[in-house]
Amino acid sequence: xxxxxxxxxxxxxxxxxxxxxxxxxxxxxxSVPNGQAAVEYVRMHAVDLMVVDxxxxxxxxxxxxxxxxxxxxxxxxxxxxxxxxxxTAVQALRLRIHDYLLKPALPPQILASVxxxxxxxxxxxxxxxxxxxxxxxxxxxEYKFKDGMLVDLSRRLVRQKNRxxxxxxxxxxxxxxxxxxxxxxxxxxxxVLLVQGYDTSQQEAPEVLRPLVSRLRxxxxxxxxxxxxxxxxxxxxYVYEDEKS
Length: 245
Fold this sequence. Notes:
Elements: E1 4-8, H1 12-24, E2 28-32, H2 35-44, E3 49-53, H3 61-71, E4 76-81, H4 86-94, E5 99-102, H5 107-137, E6 142-144, E7 150-152, E8 157-160, E9 163-166, H6 169-179, E10 185-187, H7 188-196, H8 205-219, H9 224-227, E11 230-233, E12 237-240
Parallel strand pairs: 1-2, 1-3, 3-4, 4-5
Antiparallel strand pairs: 6-7, 7-8, 8-9, 10-12, 11-12
């Protein structure tokens, strides 16, 4: 099945040339001249990957990406700009775009980035589907501990006596992975893929994962026996140490 791409650029020549290059590679390509049109298009059509210009009248590229992340989180994004800056690059990375290219980007560079972005999307969707299948088929929905604590994975709930904590979907997935694999050391990159559903570099993965682990540990601080079993392995990732007999 052909991948669906969207080009967002206010310059007609740039928009047309990029569309032609990608169509020659066999992709289904649509193009729009501004950010608002891009948002409207994505609301109505499935888009696997977008190539977005940074500087446009009205909504700029970063604003478009923020909306698309809400409307269509599965869509990968490549940001193109003739005005590169460290600040813009940092903002783009915080939005978890796939790539950040400076104009004029050469066709081989663009094609390689598109191919990699689509591969990343496929891997993310596959992992998420497998995680959903495992969750629906899992025989263990609850973990009961010697001190009376209960972890209900289906409801994303941790309870002990009169204390009760609710977890977000991402926090629940992270706790599930660790609980179901006691003693196994997971790298930051593995956990980002399993929990968030997308691949990252080894350098980026800790920055993505640490805030999530921090939030989970903060919520579990009222259950120190459980929180203390989630251990950081320096320079590698995290491990769940099983309850000692």
